[in-house]
Amino acid sequence: MTVGRMSGRQDGGQDRRPERRSVRAGAGGAGPVAPPAPLLPPEVRRALGGEGVHQPNSEPPNPRPEGPRPSERALRLATVAAAATAAAVLTGQPWLLALAVGPACLLVLAGLGGRPDRASATAEVASRRYFEGETVTAVVTVRFDGTVGWIDPGVAPGPGTELVSVDVSGPAVKLGFTAARWGRWSLGVVDLDLYDAGGLMRSTVRVDLGDIEVFPVPADGTLTPIPVRLPDRLGEHTARQSGEGIEVIGVRPHVWGERQRRIHWPSTTRRGSIQINQFAAERTADAVVLLDAFSDVADPVTGASSLDESLRVAAGLVRTYLRSHDRVGIVSVGGKLHWLQPGTGDAYFYRIVQTVLDVRRDLTFHTPDLSRLPPPALPHGALVYAVTPLADNRIMDVLGGLAERGNPIAVVEIPVGDPRISEEDAVERLALRLWRLDREAVRFSLVEKGIPVVPWLGETLDLSLAPLLRSRLSGRVS
Q1: Does 226 score more than 60 pLDDT?
Q2: Cα(450)–Cα(384) distance, integer angstroms
Q3: Is 77 helix (H, G, I), strand (E, B) or coil?
Q4: What fold is seen in the domain 2-25+41-64+115-215?
Q5: Sign of the CA dihedral running 247, 249, 252, 255
Q6: Domain 286-470 has CATH 3.30.2420
């Protein structure tokens, strides 16, 4: 295997890659005008093909024809030679044949050189799990027999990634991607054009980079509101029952056999009998995060996705309660049902997030078909956080069913922004006012059922959950 120059070569002509076909994902009207894309390095623009920009909602190009085929250089040389020969024949001027001799000689000499044969490629990705914003590195190694002049890679990134670097070194092509959006994505495909020593023939090898999982960056938070009733398991939350905790909740008369260091001396002196400190029990809490995936609403001003924000808030809630050694589960409603029974441990965070990554699979969504939760997904008395933009009436049916089961519920509302209107149009102003009143009516109906509604302020979960600390959350007593 002989390798010559191995770099993304600029031939000076039109790029040979066809533009990828765009597909539209999701529903709804046109969003806000996107800001101009940053200028990419030349090798990245050439690898992307077409206009040299990222097209997040695109499909990979069709596979190239198998076997060797002429390159752009060979087509240009053949065109010059054919044009000179035709001119000489038509005009009867033999000297015009001299213009065809040079290109013809180059074609013959280049054809005598070696060319790659039996080419194959393999891809290696450092990891298959990343958080949003992290760099994904993939190395594609080419194997072939014969001689290669250079390798020209063409990359079709997946919808949730962006190509940021291309480095060709020997038979290896190192690609750098940025994990731009959470979800389970296809990393993309790579077409490697292997040119012969003269650059006149090329053959293409396609390799699939496989799938990656991109986790959302969890929202920061430290507060963990708890329900009135806690399960009978040792934990870090103070229960209303007496037990072997560290928080003193009262005093009681001494019973023979109790430790003397628990004696409360001020009460003992006042009452004339030995009084013992009474401590509160410490229990763990069960929490279930309900993710509303019935709809994905884009903010008219910022363009932020309500589903993106919902999963970041849900991941923040899960991480906060797991840090307190509580049991946490998750349920996503809307389309295909995803749920995981409450569990604990640091590794359980990744299991929970993996459970709901399929709500967005390469920008496709299932049709919602469920309005009730399965009983195994929701333990009795578990605190339920419903993370929702309150944009679909079906989530109201789900919350009503939870309230009937007696679980304490708290709604974290994801803001969706006011629709854009013309201030000069009285009808649009009236429609906006009615829309706001309808949103207020939805919140009021939830509060009337005993379900507190707190807004997600976009900074930290503590600002949203602080009002829930005024009293413990209670559901319907069964």
Answers
A1: yes
A2: 13
A3: helix
A4: Immunoglobulin-like (2.60.40)
A5: negative
A6: no
